[in-house]
Amino acid sequence: MQANDPGGPKRSDNLTLNPDLVARAEALNLSTLAKEAATAALARITRAKFDAEIAKACRVHNHYLTEYGSLGDAVRAAAFDEV
């Protein structure tokens, strides 16, 4: 996943931050720090959503297996019944 288009256009925006935080960040390049923080937060949020989707799919799959069993078990059972 590409975090952003490094060659893309930039735009100014307003942020509301603690003045002490801004002063410390400006000494290290506020724009770069903001970009890195936003990129990291977006990656973390995207990963958390993906993990939640996978966990839900696993719960649904496990429920199905509990309710109906697996296709592999059914095929093996049918194969042994025919022998």
Helix content class: over 70%
Instruction: Please state roughly what percent of the residues sit in beta strands, choosing from under 5%, 5-15%, 15-25%, 25-35%, 35-45% or over 45%.
Output: under 5%
Q: Cα-atom Rg, whole angstroms?
A: 25 Å
| Domain count | 1
Q: Give the helix tally.
A: 3
Identify the overall geometry: rod-shaped
Mean pLDDT: 90
Would you write up a description of this structure?
By secondary structure, the protein is mainly α. The protein has one domain. It is 71% helix and 0% strand. It has three helices and no strands. The chain starts with 18 loop residues before the first helix and ends with a helix.
Q: What would the keywords be for this entry?
A:
mainly alpha
Brief synopsis:
This protein has 83 residues and is an all-alpha fold. Helices cover 71% and strands 0% of the residues. It has one domain.
Topology:
Layout: H1 19-26, H2 30-68, H3 71-82
